[in-house]
Amino acid sequence: MRHFAIVGSGPAGFYTAEALEKAYGDQARVDILDRYPVPYGLIRFGVAPDHQSLKAVSKRYDKVADSAGVDFIGNVSVGRDVSVAELLELYDAVILAVGSPHSRKLGIPGEALGGVIGSADFVGWYNGHPDYADLDPPLTGTHAAVIGNGNVALDCARILSKSRREFEGSDIVGHALDALDNSAIRTVTILGRRGPHQIAMTPKELGELGHLEEAQPVVDLNDFPPREADDALEPGQRKSVTILRDFADIRANKRKTMIFDFFAKPLRIEGDGKAETIVVERTELDEKGAARGTGETYEVPTSLIISAIGYSSAPIEGVPYDERGGKFLNEGGRIADRLYAVGWARRGPSGTIGTNRPDGYEVADLVAAAMPSGTAGDRAGAAGLKRLLESRGVMPTDYDDWRKIEENEAANARPGSPREKFVRHQQWLQTLGR
Ligand code: NAP
Predict the structure, then answer these.
(1) If you average pLDDT over residues 126-146, what whole number do you get?
(2) Which of 5, 70, 135, 264 is 20 to 30 A off residue 299, Cα-Cα?
(3) Of 54, 67, 76, residue with least CA distance to 9
(4) Which atom of ligand 1 has the smallest separation from the CA of 48?
(5) How many C-beta neighbours within 10 Å does residue 165 have?
(6) Do 299 and 326 fall within a single domain?
(7) 381 C-alpha to ligand 1 centroid (Å)
(8) Which residue's CA is the closest to the ligand 1 atom numbered 29?
């Protein structure tokens, strides 16, 4: 029997478990560990609460968790409760599927001022991540700025601009819904350091901005290259750019605006103890398509700045880490003997949820090539891990525990909402009578 530990129960973790189950059948036991008693990682804490259709993929993960060879071991923090070296003693292979939970830094003066928030924190706040339950983003000013031209920037701008009614059916947590409902923000400036052709926004996500109840997107056609130039773009990108161009035709007079400010590179953030202004430099594209400053600067007044410029993984002691890439050093998923990385921990924060499926299958293939099905291992697996955790006073949880939490969250839901998430670790444990 082989024993495999997957650290992290987000999409990459579940797809890898599914692949290992398929590769080994009853020749292996796969344990999915998570530091929380609740599974799904990015699906629960990252995917926007008003994108419930994307979150529905968790039903597929439930099937994986239900399969005979797979177990969920929650409430165990790798690095704190058990080390990677200890897991490698207990398991034939350890696969890190820990995602990229931290915001990349802007690295500009003023970043530490109040009101400057990384997208991981802001997204975590409205999605009920326990680390950000007390974030309390300042929503009393009229202007916010979102830095970045990717889908996360769109998520943040949209969440700041929606009406309370538009959150019906979502699982946005109550504290965020109430705060956003009372928000004074009327203008969200989306700062892109390059131009419309360089956006990393997908058509569906971008298109949504054109149909909001109280807010309208604003673009300046002077920022765009001639329309014929769009022909050189790949089809998806061309679609996005067309949607963006068409925003110029919107003739509404809604009370909120989302302004796309292209060729605008943040230089510094200024304010007396808290953010008041972001100073940006006009840019142009250099020969390689990168943003080059023109020397012209201007100020965007704003009391809330969300930087949505990408994520990085959290380093784990003893595991080689690629600081620049914000991921674990690995070759095609292999970090070291019997130690692997998958998903964002492997390749950095890119791609859709579905990208993690082939990624997980590829890493499972690597594992299977190194220790073919049918060959025996003599590691202790979950039994050994549970003994070790018990000796340290750590009480792991299982999938039945998650189901209890899930039932309670569903029972607490606002009308029309699938759940009201508990936002404190303690609340999860209390639900379990711990
Ligand atoms: P992303 O797609 O990599 O976009 C990051 C953006 O930040 C880019 O526009 C980048 O501009 C900009 N940027 C980076 N460094 C910057 C700096 N120092 N100053 C100013 N701008 C900077 O990352 P993301 O938006 O965090 O999304 C992560 C992944 O999740 C993506 O694959 C995304 O598609 C996916 N996602 C999907 C959905 C969905 O499908 N609904 C929702 C959310 C996220 P440059 O291009 O100039 O580097």
Answers:
(1) 97
(2) 135
(3) 76
(4) 42
(5) 9
(6) no
(7) 38
(8) 350
Query: Does residue 89 share a domain with residue 181?
Result: no
- Residue nearest to ligand 1 atom 38, measured at CA: 151
Q: Identify whether residues 404 and 270 lie together within a single domain.
A: no
Instruction: Tell the residue nearest (CA) to atom 33 of ligand 1.
Output: 151
On whether both 318 and 302 belong to a single domain, the answer is no
Look up residue 378 and give its amino acid. D
The residue whose C-alpha atom lies closest to atom 13 belonging to ligand 1 is 309
Mean of pLDDT over the chain: 96
pLDDT digits (tens, 9 = 90+) for 156-179: 999 999 999 999 999 999 999 999
In this structure, the answer to whether residues 239 and 249 fall within a common structural domain is yes
Do 276 and 147 belong to one domain?
yes
Position 373 confidence tier, pLDDT thresholds 50, 70, 90? confident
Ligand 1 surroundings by CB, under 6 angstroms: 106, 147-153, 155, 193-194, 198, 200, 202, 205, 266, 308-311, 349-352
The rounded Å distance from CA 221 to ligand 1 centre is: 22
Rounded Cα gap, residues 39 and 409, in angstroms: 14
The total number of structural domains that make up the chain: 2
- Which of 47, 53, 122, 309 has most ligand 1 atoms within 8 Å of its beta carbon, as the pocket-test mutant? 309
Hey, what are 338's tokens?
């019997």
Boundary-marking domain end, from 307, 324, 354: 307
In ligand 1, which atom is closest to the CA atom of 205? 41
pTM: 0.96
Q: What is the CATH number of the domain that holds 345?
A: 3.40.50.720
Q: In this structure, what CATH number is given to the domain that contains residue 234?
A: 3.50.50.60
Which tens digit of pLDDT belongs to each residue from 52-86?
999 999 999 999 999 999 999 999 999 999 999 99
Nearest CA to ligand 1 atom 3: 310
Which range of residues forms the domain containing residue 171?
103-307
Encode pLDDT of 208-238 as tens digits: 999 999 999 999 999 999 999 999 999 999 9
Residue nearest to atom 31 of ligand 1 (CA): 350
65 and 111 inside one domain: no
In this structure, are 82 and 114 located in the same domain?
no
Domain end call among 292, 307, 322: 307
Distances (CA, A) of 127 to 58, 132, 171, 360: 15, 9, 8, 25
